[in-house]
Amino acid sequence: MDITNYLIGLLTGVSVTTFFIGKEWYKYYTKYTIQQKQLDRVLKLNDKIKRLKNYSPAETQNVNVGV
Which of 19, 18, 66, 22 is nearest to 41 (CA)? Predict the structure, then answer.
């Protein structure tokens, strides 16, 4: 009987620990992917700005920046 209670307690402890570790990993993963998407957007916008600076003033009237 004691070994059964020990095994049940061990399984429960491992399950709870795994749940909390998975929860923290998921929070880190979502935070990282959101930051990566924001960084990609900023870099894309920065590339557009750099291209616009290279155009002459007559060409910039016909360019849609997407703002």
Answer: 66
First to last CA, the chain: 70
Instruction: Give residue 2's identity as a one-letter amino acid code.
Output: D
Question: In 27-59, which positions are buried (b, 16+ CB within 10 angstroms) versus exposed (e)?
Answer: eeeeeeeeeeeeeeeeeeeeeeeeeeeeeeeee
Q: What is the dihedral of CA 13, 18, 23, 29, to 10 degrees?
A: 160
Q: Can you give the pLDDT at residue 18?
A: 96
Q: Which residues contact 63 (CB under 8 A, 6 or more apart)?
A: 52, 55
Q: In terms of pTM, does the model score above 0.85? A: no
